[in-house]
Amino acid sequence: MITEYPSKERIYGYNPTTGESEPIWKDNATGSIVQIEIPHAAIHFGKYFSDTGKLTIANGASFDHLLITPAPGGKLVHLRLFLFAATSAPIYHYLYEDATVSANGTAHSGENFNRNFSSATLGLYHAPTVTTTGTLIHTSGIIGTKQSGGAGETSGTEWVLKQNSKYLSRLTNNSGGSADLIYVIEWYEL
């Protein structure tokens, strides 16, 4: 069972959502402080987001997401996950830093994992008009044949994105035929 520490032993921590000190919880079996990982805490504080979707990419074509980070002094964006699954392979994922675009594309707000809070400060756009891709910082993909398809995850850890920058996430289909694809992007902002 998990409860608050008794008032004589109470330990307080800062809650960035309310701006106030609140009691820290303990495990009654061990007496230890209950701890959760930062991404889990970010969900509780209304700072963890995702963007998901389904699309079809023709052979030899790409689909782009543009991520625009807040200006210095704003929140830091911690990019946690690019997960994708496709009906054909190979599908490659590229992440570029400092991309340039002539048009941002269609605005798409991420969904907050804590439904009691509002949307993200990360600017997220689908299908931007890309002028230059920028510096390639990460590559991954689904390796296989046209018949096998599969799933791939770009990062098991996280990227802390540079502030006031444009990032391009590009999914490219090299399977020899069109591919249906589902994608998940997750991040938190602190």
Description:
This protein is 4% helix and 51% strand. With 190 residues, it is mainly beta. The protein has two domains: 2-35, no CATH class; 50-189, Sandwich (Jelly Rolls). The longest helix has 7 residues, at 38-44. It is elongated. 27% of the residues are buried. The mean pLDDT is 86.
According to CATH, the homologous superfamily of the largest domain is: GOLD domain
Quick one: CATH class of the largest domain? Mainly Beta
Basic shape:
elongated
| Low-pLDDT ranges | none
Question: Roughly how much helix do the residues carry, as a percent range?
Answer: under 10%
Question: What distance lies between the first and last C-alpha atoms, to the nearest angstrom?
Answer: 30 Å
Summed up, the helix count is 1
Characteristic key phrases:
six-stranded antiparallel beta sheet, mainly beta, 190 residues, elongated, Jelly Rolls
Structural topology:
Layout: E1 2-4, E2 12-15, E3 20-23, E4 25-27, H1 38-44, E5 48-57, E6 62-68, E7 77-86, E8 91-97, E9 100-103, E10 106-107, E11 111-112, E12 123-126, E13 129-132, E14 135-142, E15 150-153, E16 159-160, E17 166-173, E18 179-189
Antiparallel strand pairs: 1-4, 2-3, 5-11, 5-18, 6-12, 6-17, 7-15, 7-16, 7-18, 8-14, 8-17, 9-13, 10-12
